[in-house]
Amino acid sequence: MATTAASPAPAPAPAPAPALAGGSGRPRQRRGPRRGRGGATGDTAQVPNAALTLRPASVAPVATPAPTPTSIAPRGNGNGRRGGYRGRGRGGQLMVNGQRAFGGQLTTATPREGSLAGDAHEFIPGQAHAPRSRGPPLRNMPRRMSKSQAPDIATRTHEDITNGQYECVICTNEVLPNSKVWSCKTCWSVLHLSCVKRWSKNEVSTHQQRAVENGELPPPRQWRCPGCNLPKSDLPNNYSCWCEKEIEPRSIAGLPPHSCGQSCSKRRVGSCPHPCELMCHAGPCPPCGHMGPSMSCFCGKEMTSRRCVETNYEKGWTCGQICGEDLPCGEHACERECHEGLCGSCDVEVESRCYCGMEKLGLKCSEREDEMESQSTEEKWIGSFNCGVECRRSFDCGNPNHFCEKACHVQDPKQAHCPLSPDVVTHCPCGKTRVKDLLPEPRLDCSAPIPHCQEKCQKLLGCGHLCEQKCHAGGCRPCLQTVLISCRCGRTTSNSLCHQGMEKPPQCPRICRSNLNCGRHECGERCCPGEKKASERQASKRKHRALNVPANGQEFEPEHICLRVCGRALKCGNHNCASLCHKGPCASCLEAVFEDISCACGRTVLQPPQPCGTTPPECRFDCTRRRNCGHPQIKHQCHEDTEDCPKCPFLVEKPCVCGKKTLKNQPCWFTEVRCGLPCNKKLRCGNHFCQKMCHRNGQCEDAASSCTQACGRKKTVCEHTCLDPCHAPYPCKETTPCQAKTFITCECQNQKQAIRCLASKSSPGNSEKTLDCNEECLRLQRNAKLAAALKIDPATHTDDHIPYDSKTLSFFSANQKFAQQYEREFRVFATDEKEKRLRFKPMQPYQRAFIHGLAEDFGLDSESQDPEPHRHVCIFKTPKFVSAPTKTLGQCVKILAVGQQEASISKPLVSSAEPWNAFLLSNPKFGITIDELYTDLKPEFATAGIDFEISFLPSGDVVLKALSTTSWLIKLDKELAAIKAPVAKKVTSLGLASSTTLCAVDSSLNVLRREDENAASGGWSQVAKGGALLRSIAQPTVGAKSSFTVLGSKRVKDMENKKKVEDAVDDWEVEADAT
């Protein structure tokens, strides 16, 4: 809270207007900043006359000289600010800070009307007197008094209440001098009486209502002071002065607010015998300054008198001398220094002897028992303790078997009389028959046996029955009569021996399921004594019999009172409920926080005391934490440490977790940056590489277990790879038949069949099996011989022919190094007559597709074998194979480039008459998609029964190619020409493209012919115009096969099937079974 500096010599502010009577008054519209109770947070205005200011209650007033004229403030108009008296008290006296200011009032610098002044008008006899103009009236500028900074609580409280600076912590309104107040005797907080009454009643009623709802006894009427959070038992009822001598005190001018003016007379803290001598005041009484009474030390050897504040009335004082008091034993004196309380027991060690004289020990004087004199026939001693050993002193009979069996006791000089002597034993053990009636001759000594009569003992047992045994010596046996005995719960009775019920009541196996008084646990005790009462109580509840409730209000049985500790977490979150297990929610935490509770930045603080569990306040300032990355912080509100700051949005370069790449434009907060590439580190097996994507070091596939990849090594019994889990460094077992797919062919290799290999170390499997040649094989052999007889050389017909498919040439252009490497392997395999099969290493799917296409161009058969990642391609020589193409892929690419260049320079005179098979859309709409075009134009194509596919050319134009077989080209040409008009209309109306043109395209989407080409650019029209005859350049037919490759009845359908690339299947066994 900001403080205001006092001016050098300010005039006292005019006294504030009185507040409304009763309570805390009504709040004003303009209020200053909230201030705490009685605390000094600002500077107090300096008043030149110290006698007029409020003095501490513990300081007596000091006489001061008369004030100078400049120290007297001008008389106020009686109107002041809130929270104080009016400018004048009773009798019109001037009031300053709640006290009367004696003395007159000096004149001001402004002259009164009619007085002498330099600016007065000239006096002319006979004329009216002109009044002098008066200056503007002086205005008393009110100034708000600052908080008191007095050294003691009483003076601060008086001054703040007088100046309207003291606030009630409940309603936060000012506590005024005429308000009815209540003061806490612990923290000395001053509150409005009406506020604290309402506070105490609400808190007490809340606890009582909660107790009634939970079915518990109402708690004692206690409430907590809002200032110190400590429990109070007395409810505030009356408004009294500070010393509580006067009820409803009146405000008296010149006295502190709410003071009766009498002496305080309250007892001071401690055992001070002097009451407080100050005037009735707020806060605690000051320390006593009188001399205390003379007090002796603990031992009473010295006397002293000190000031009351220095005297410890409760504990006393010590002189430091040896105590010397007699100890309780009466033999020794206390050797401790002067001490408080009794001297205690005597710890001097004394040699002692037991009563029976059999043991001697060194015991402390205080541990000895009563001293008694013992005497034997030989010696005499003083016994002081019982050793507990059996006496074993012989009786006067002299029989060695008869001796004293008592524990250690005082010894007599004369031996004890034997209890078995004839003069002692006169009756049988049961006491019914005399011994002389049972024996023919009397007993001579104590060793003679004692006879037993034949009658029943008939002694009364503890159960109330009589002993049924015959006369016997010693104690009676337990009662053996059979009686009905009830168990502890009283629900089961059984016939049992009487003594069993006396020793311990039997227990039935019934488990008590009654709920305890907490409502959370059940009894669970076996044969519970209170189960029957619990059943009756529950039955009375169901029948609403309120009269059956005990008069003391104790509803539950003693056996069903839960004695466990509640232990549930309180709302504060820091403590657990320490009360016994109970119903309903736990009470509020009784702890309080007496430290400042601040936000994370420390700029928003809650002042103590605060209830336990109070969360830090919400801070409206910006967060001041610095990022570890060094980037500037994003503007956001202050928060606790449990909440993270917003993530750093800056983009930086970060290495991936595997360390192979450094990725750009990565968020700064991102810690797991991954490049997405496989690890490819060699595993511990030595045969495989880690296939996991980018990961941290030490997290490869074999980090937690051994390598789980397939072995992949080539078997020794066949050409396939081992598919068992990695078993390095041990060799492959090869004991089970190989389940890989293989092919068997006929001798001419025209036929082939897919079967399982089934090779193992014990059997060669199907690798040596062959098929028999059929009639087709013989026909192909005849055709080959015919070609040799006619001396037909295919090379003479392929000068301008390209024997490769367009896809193969496109792949060669994009991957020239890879394509040349495998083309060389193909040519080496083709020239070697002994080789019939060639296997390539595993590769990617698009590379395998190139191998399949190249094998078809060479006239070879190809198959993909084994699943991923070991899938590879095998090629085979069949009778279809004649020789390798004479032109390489590089030569064909050059020929294709030259042909396209010549075709672009000169156009043929006569059209190639290529039939229409597509529409060409020029300048299509920006952002148009294939799905939109297909949806819009499908109805027009559907009328002709034609399906189509859509492709985008590199120039940006769109080709709508019709899908049909070659045998229907002429019909397709006519159908496309028939639907051109509706298609063009639909394209123009929807704005799909600028124009629609019929065209002819090849399989590589090369436009061979367009409808909008100039018809007069060739043919007879060109000749009539005198133009030079241009030789028509044959259109390149990439991928077309020479007619001399295979002679005979090769059909068009077979030629098209050869162009298709075989798709690699995942499950070759299913495919083989299907074939």
UniProtKB/TrEMBL annotation:
Localization annotation: Nucleus
Matches recorded under PROSITE patterns: R3H (PS51061)
Domain R3H positions: 816-879
Biased composition regions of type Low complexity, renumbered to the chain: 56-76
Ranges for region Disordered: 1-92, 126-153
GO cellular component: nucleus
CDD domains: NF-X1-zinc-finger, R3H_unknown_2, RING-CH-C4HC3_NFX1-like
Protein name: Related to cysteine-rich protein NFX-1
